[in-house]
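Lab channel / #folding
Pinned by the channel admin:
"Please post every new chain as: sequence first, then the structure tokens as a reply. Keep commentary short and put observations after the output so the thread stays searchable."

First post following the new format, from NK:
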Amino acid sequence: MNAAFGALKRHVDAAFASVASEIARQSRVELGKDSIAKKQGFRSPVALIQATTGSSVGPGSIDPALRAPAGGADTPSPRSRMSHERSTDGERCRVALPPNGRCRPRVPADRVGRVTDPRSPGARMGAEGESARTATSTTKMKTPPTARTRRRRRITWTVASIAVLAVVGGAAVGAAALAGLFGSAAPAAPAVDTPFAVLDESGAAQASTTATGTALAPADYLAAQPTAYWLTPERDPIGSAGDRVTALAAEARAQHATLALVVYGLPERDCGNHSAGGLDVADYPVWVDEIAAALTAAPDVPAVIVLEPDSLALATECGNLDARVPQLRSAIDALQRPGTWIYLDGGHSSWHPATEQTRLLAAVGLDGVRGFSTNVSNFNAAADEFDYAHAVADALVAGGTGADHAHALIDTSRSGAGSNGEWCNPPGRLVGEASATLGDGVVDTNLWIKPPGESDGPCNGGPAAGQWWPDAAVELTRAVRR
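Reply from TO:
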């Protein structure tokens, strides 16, 4: 805030300094190399400017020491009283110089009032019409303004122009200051062509620094793809989660991109399956609050949050919907902010029917969220997920959910070959459509949410869930690397 208003003050000060400088410049131009102050009997240019414009430049009033001697500023100097001979328009004139020290030659009678602008109507008239105009103009012609009057007008217009520019520029700086105080308009919601950040902390990026042989090209390829980062308390515990988010936000800011995060730390996560873990009931809100604080500290970075995948779709199997609702609701309340879009767990097209998944989503309520995510860590084709997302959204709206809270985000990280019915490291799969290349009125866009190359768990030859698996990376990218 102080910096913004400091910039505004510097702008205004510079504008007034420009006014003073321009007035002095105009005066110097009018009288050439000789000092105007000396010609007019002033002891400094500042005194002359004040007398000429009728106003002061800068704070305070004119110093009495700067005023002219007795007789005032209009008292001609001895030099100005002298006759002077000067050539103008090829004519010689010898007249007593006026106080401004300039010679005004006599104008021949036959040229008084004559129209000389070739663009004017008079210039296109015949000799007879021109003579008539000349005769009329001669009787009505006013006395030309003195040099001093012309100079005063030019200075007045200069001051007015600079003042206008100062006001316009000040308004711009002021707007910037207000934007710094109150923030700019929130970015647009995720959509096709949304730039998602490519993060150095991804498993693929880390693997690309050590991979060799046939494992290097797949790691390099996957490291260059915009992919969500999974925040888990095992990797980013309380006390370090906020720092991690701050670092990720800095990367996204440098890329002018949207940060995509998966928050995955609920108590009794994954019902004891391969991704079991999470925090206890008391620590979970503390961890989420730390993440939320870091996001709030980066208001210029738009963010997408996929909140607790599988938490709702597994709730019926785990029998913990009553516990999940307040946990998710408190997380939503903590994480929502302008420029952040939260997507709840929406299952996928080969899991629950759309009506059942709608019931689970409605139990939590979609106030404060953008909508739901589908196909996270699964392999279904994008077309199937679009149909499913539309069915869920229609059911939500029919049940009273506002359409603004019934949008979908689809994971296409491993959907290139569709599903074979397995969910844990199935063989023969391919990476799917690149992030932010699909979307419609319901589906905001697609995103690589599950990082390709990371294992689903110790099945089909894979390591523990979430660990980098070079063989999977090779297989998933075999088509795109040809």
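NK: The chain is about 40% helix and 10% strand.
TO: also worth noting, Residues 9 and 170 are 9 Å apart (CA to CA).
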